[in-house]
Structures are given as C-alpha cells and as structure tokens.
Design a protein that fits this description.
The chain is of the alpha+beta class. The protein has eight helices and six strands; from the N terminus they run βββαββααβααααα. α4 packs antiparallel against α6 and α7 runs antiparallel to α8.
C-alpha cells in the first residue's frame, strides 16, 4: 500500500496511579529507525515495542515517547528493605572487626546501597500492561494516519501518470508529422544552397536521421513504466524503494527524448514529462 512515512498519533489514559500518555511521530527515512523514550519504570517495554514496530512499520524515522505523571494523592514515603539492611550491617560489623581503626558505619552509605530503599508499593505490573495496551492504540492511530496520507499521495502520483500517458500519446501521434516536416526542411536547405542532389543519397541520409531521432522505443518504455508504477501502487507491500527506482527509469527516458527533440513541440513535451516525473519523485520520498 502507498503508506506515507509522515504521521503523528497521541493516546492518553488516566489511571488511579497517574496519567499515561504516548506520542508517536514518524517522518521519512531511507530505512526504519526507531527511537523510544521511556521512564525508567517502563524500561522493560523497550524490547517488545521495538520488535512490534519492526513487524508493522517498514520504513521511516519513528519517535515514541511515553510520559507518566503520578497521581497527586500518591504518597512519596519511603520504606526500608529491612532483611537486606540487617545483612549489610552484620557484614559491615564483621569487616570492621577485622580492620584496625575502622570508622563507624555511615547510615547514608547504607541507604545508597541498591535495594535498601523501597518506594511505596504499587501495582507496577498493571501500570506497565496499561502502557503497553495504550501503545497499541497509538500505533494503530499512527498507521491509520500514514494510510490516509498515503492514499492522497497515491492519487497525486496517479494524476501525474495520467499526464505522462497523455503526453506520450500526443508525441507518438505527432512524430510522423514532425519527421515529414524535418525531411522537407532538409531538402529545402539543400535547394536553397543550390547543391546538386543525389536523390538516393539524400534518402539514405534522411533514413539515417529518422532512425537517430526516432523516439518510438523511448515512448514504449515510458508506457511500460506507467503500467508498472500503477501496479506497484496497488501492491500490499512497502513500495517506496521500488517507486524510487522507477522514477530513475522515467528520468532516463525523458532525458533521451529531450536529446532527440527536433522542434519546439517535441522539446516542450520532453520538458513537461520531466516536470511530471520530478513532481512524482518528490511525493514518493514520503512513501513507505
């Protein structure tokens, strides 16, 4: 599908323990690049969320931010892990007995030991599950946003493809007339110069010139690229890179048409094609 890489989503939930809010932003990027900003208490979510994004998003720079504001009524009182604290004191006393001139036990150093100070017990597991569920909601909204914008980009590209098809059809119909006019112009120049012409040689030169400026092959390839681009746009896979490659092929044919142009009309047609192709290329930079 033609999903855009540019989108934003926000989901919020109020719980007894506080307010949870996810903000997801994505912009265009050559590959998938994920940035997660989580409070320390929710750090265990990082691995599963990265894996989820890899499965559901193919390309883009995605920034995911979780904010948690604890409820005001929650107490900030601290409690001690008494079994661990008792073990630390005993170990410190045993060590002090074996050392000469050992200083007294510093309570602040004991408090700094990991696990000694406990916060108020809360249902942290439940809060993490709520944050995980809320992320699914935000991701769904982000994907819907990407899909809506992608549908608009697809329509813009289809309009440019229609314009390209119109120009190639006009140029194809115009070419016999252009070649005839160019042949007449060459003969007139020879006549104006009052040169003695070998009709057979002139026809050979005109045939060679016609082959040199013939653009039927380029027009056929342009038509093929239009058909392929339409097919890719209807694909269910990530299509951005494939479309980018097709734009390079479009440009190659348009450049060749420009180099073979023999009058202002064919030159203008080549310029129009390059404008349409560039407009498509700019839109495709945002497609996943």
């Amino acid at each position: 599908m033609a999903n855009s890489m540019t989108a934003f989503a926000r989901s919020e939930l109020s719980t007894d323990q506080g307010n949870l809010a996810w903000e997801l932003r994505s912009v265009n990027h050559r590959y998938l690049e994920v940035t997660l900003r989580l409070p320390e208490a929710f750090r265990e979510l990082e691995g599963p969320l990265r894996e989820l994004l890899r499965k559901q998003v193919a390309r883009g720079k995605v920034e995911c931010t979780l904010r948690f504001n604890p409820a005001e009524q929650q107490s900030s009182e601290l409690s001690l892990n008494k079994p661990l604290l008792d073990q630390l004191i005993r170990t410190t006393e045993q060590l002090g007995a074996r050392l000469h001139n050992a200083g007294p036990i510093n309570p602040l150093e004991l408090l700094a030991w990991p696990g000694v100070v406990l916060g108020e017990k809360t249902d942290q597991d439940d809060l993490v599950k709520q944050a995980r569920s809320l992320f699914d909601q935000a991701l769904k909204e982000l994907k819907e946003h990407r899909a809506r914008e992608g549908a608009e980009l697809k329509q813009l590209i289809i309009e440019r493809l229609d314009n390209i098809s119109d120009r190639t059809a006009i140029l194809r119909e115009m070419m016999p007339t252009l070649l005839t006019a160019h042949r007449r112009k060459l003969i007139d120049r020879f006549n104006d110069a009052k040169l003695e012409l070998d009709s057979t040689r002139v026809e050979q030169e005109i045939v060679l010139l016609a082959q040199k400026i013939d653009v039927a092959e380029e027009l056929d390839r342009l038509d093929t690229h239009v058909v392929e681009t339409r097919r890719v746009l209807d694909s269910k896979d990530a299509i951005g890179r494939r479309l980018d490659f097709l734009m390079q092929e479009f440009n190659r044919e348009a450049n060749t048409l420009g180099s073979k142009a023999i009058d202002t009309r064919s030159t203008q047609a080549a310029v129009d094609l390059k404008v349409f192709i560039e407009q498509m290329r700019e839109q495709i930079q945002n497609i996943e």
